[in-house]
């Protein structure tokens, strides 16, 4: 068996292994909010991912990928020794897969893109030295550690606050949920259709100009809103007159917010002893509001709130389907792009500016992603869905909406983005809307540390594997 044949088998195995770990980590964290909120069971999530992740990867996956990921290293360093690129991509894929498997074992949702970038930096520095690395691009990518979770968290925070005030803190939550559902469907469908049209369909050489994409997105969103309008009309508002609790009244929360606002204004106008007494009164009202939230939690299972959560449960299934398809369409190249570049070198013996990805490789990536979610994804699902903060369908919907919106705006602005970081930030934002005590700060700390460690660890593992491969094949 020739060296090229051995390397071909190894890179195929490494590509499938990385795709498997993408499913276990990336897909698992994307589906974690739906599972953690109870909108989907693990079995249902796997079935949805099996169809939609594979469909997104197979039909809309990247057909053309940069030979060197994201302009991280100078490709000219491989011109005289093309096999070095094969060794490097094999080491990067294997190193990425190993780090993702370790992260998945501990339930850490990390960025596959950043792991691949770390690997490419590692073998690029070995071959061409530090000057061969485009450090400006690396810093640009690393900035998503701050940008992605911050924007995703802010959008989810304010969306969930709106849902609480407009639905949960009213005397008619079911009626208000019915009224807002078509509007929510309209905006979410608009966000996801824009994401697909601007970020996915170019992979099959189908381009839309701004007006075409906007028109298609708008018509799709209107259709979704109309369907949801007639759907919610079929939901019967429960008769809860006899079930109304005298303990909890959601309008009290709004009244306490107004009291705090007036006290804050009064504090700014006072000095000395009056200001001190106002501070004490403000703290007392704030504590009263916090303690009153406990009654809200105890009342959430009442038939009215249960009906509202069922509505959001259906909405969250829609968001999970859309996110799964978009993820499969856009992220499969993390495993298949480097694999295709290595196969191209083995086939032609030269470095190409771009590499066409054959359909059978997209199928390989799709199968690997689904297998990873089904066999190993439950660990990361537990972190996203349960350990950061307690999720309900309404909270999960707010998190997924915030994450999707962030991805759209960031991609249109050309800013670096990580789906993983964005979704974690969105879940944290929903938790903060309920107060800092609603977050598991230890879990959040561990996740952030894993983000920071991803690029250097990916680089370190890849360098070690690269030297091993050089020793074996040279």
Concise overview:
The protein has 474 residues and is mostly helical. The protein has helices at residues 3-36, 42-60, 83-105, 112-128, 135-142, 144-168, 173-199, 210-233, 251-269, 272-299, 303-331, 333-348, 359-376, 378-387, 393-413, 419-433, 441-473; strands at residues 64-66, 354-356. The protein has one domain.
Say how many strands there are.
2
Molecular shape: globular
Helix content: over 70%
Poorly predicted regions:
241-246, 297-301
Q: What fraction strand?
A: under 5%
Whole-number tally of structural domains: 1
Question: Structural class, please?
Answer: mainly alpha
Number of helices, where a helix is a run of at least 4 consecutive DSSP H or I residues: 17
Largest sheet, strands/sense/barrel: 2 strands, antiparallel
Strand and helix order: HHEHHHHHHHHHHEHHHHH
Residue-averaged pLDDT: 79
Give the neighbour order of strands across the main sheet.
1-2
- C-alpha Rg (nearest Å): 25 Å
Separation of the first and last Cα atoms: 16 Å
How do the helices and strands line up, and which of them pair or pack?
Elements: H1 3-36, H2 42-60, E1 64-66, H3 83-105, H4 112-128, H5 135-142, H6 144-168, H7 173-199, H8 210-233, H9 251-269, H10 272-299, H11 303-331, H12 333-348, E2 354-356, H13 359-376, H14 378-387, H15 393-413, H16 419-433, H17 441-473
Antiparallel strand pairs: 1-2
Protein architecture, described:
The protein is built from 17 helices and two strands. It has one domain (3-236, 299-473). It is an all-alpha fold and 474 residues long. α4 packs parallel to α17 and α6 packs parallel to α16 (419-433). Strands 1-2 form a two-stranded antiparallel sheet. The model is unreliable at 241-246 and 297-301 (pLDDT under 50). Helix content is 77%, strand content 1%.
């Amino acid at each position: 068996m020739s060296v090229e044949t051995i390397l071909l088998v190894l890179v195929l195995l490494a590509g499938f292994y990385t795709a498997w770990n993408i499913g276990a980590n990336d897909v698992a964290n994307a589906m974690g909010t739906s599972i953690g909120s109870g909108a989907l069971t693990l079995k249902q999530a796997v079935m949805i991912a099996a169809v939609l992740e594979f469909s997104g990867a197979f039909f809309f996956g990247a057909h053309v990928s940069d030979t060197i990921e994201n302009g991280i290293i100078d490709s000219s360093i491989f011109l005289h020794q093309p096999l070095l690129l094969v060794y490097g991509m094999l080491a990067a894929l294997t190193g990425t897969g190993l780090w993702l498997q370790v992260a998945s074992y501990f339930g850490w949702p990390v960025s596959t893109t950043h792991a691949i970038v770390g690997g490419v930096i590692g073998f690029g520095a070995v071959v061409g030295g530090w000057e061969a690395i485009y450090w400006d691009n690396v810093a640009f990518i690393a900035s998503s550690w701050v940008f992605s979770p911050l924007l995703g968290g802010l959008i989810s925070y304010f969306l969930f606050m709106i849902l609480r005030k407009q639905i949960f803190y009213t005397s008619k939550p079911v009626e208000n949920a019915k009224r807002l559902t078509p509007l929510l469907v309209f905006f979410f469908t608009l966000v996801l259709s824009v994401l697909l049209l601007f970020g996915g369909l170019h992979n099959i050489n189908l381009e839309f100009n701004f007006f075409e994409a906007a028109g298609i997105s708008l018509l799709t969103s209107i259709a979704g809103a109309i369907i949801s309008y007639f759907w919610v009309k079929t939901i019967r508002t429960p008769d809860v007159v006899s079930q109304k609790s005298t303990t909890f009244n959601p309008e009290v929360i709004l009244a306490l917010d107004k009291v705090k606002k007036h006290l804050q204004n009064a504090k700014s106008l006072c000095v000395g002893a009056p200001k001190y007494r106002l501070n004490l009164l403000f703290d007392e009202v704030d504590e009263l509001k916090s303690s009153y939230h406990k009654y809200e939690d105890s009342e959430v299972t009442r038939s009215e709130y249960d009906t509202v959560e069922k509505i959001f449960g259906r909405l969250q299934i829609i968001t999970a389907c859309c996110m799964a398809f978009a993820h499969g369409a856009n992220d499969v190249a993390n495993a298949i792009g480097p694999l295709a570049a290595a196969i191209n070198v083995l086939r032609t013996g030269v470095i190409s500016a771009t590499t066409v990805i054959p359909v059978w490789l997209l199928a390989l990536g799709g199968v690997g992603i689904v297998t990873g979610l089904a066999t190993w994804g439950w660990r990361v699902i537990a972190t996203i869905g349960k350990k950061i903060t307690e999720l309900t369908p309404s909270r999960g919907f707010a998190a997924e909406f915030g994450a999707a919106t962030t991805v759209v705006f960031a991609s249109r602005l050309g800013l670096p983005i990580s789906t993983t970081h964005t979704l974690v930030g969105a879940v944290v934002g929903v938790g903060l809307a309920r107060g800092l005590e609603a977050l598991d700060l230890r879990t959040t700390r561990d996740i952030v540390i894993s983000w920071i460690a991803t690029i250097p660890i990916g680089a370190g593992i890849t360098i070690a594997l690269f030297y091993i491969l050089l020793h074996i094949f040279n």
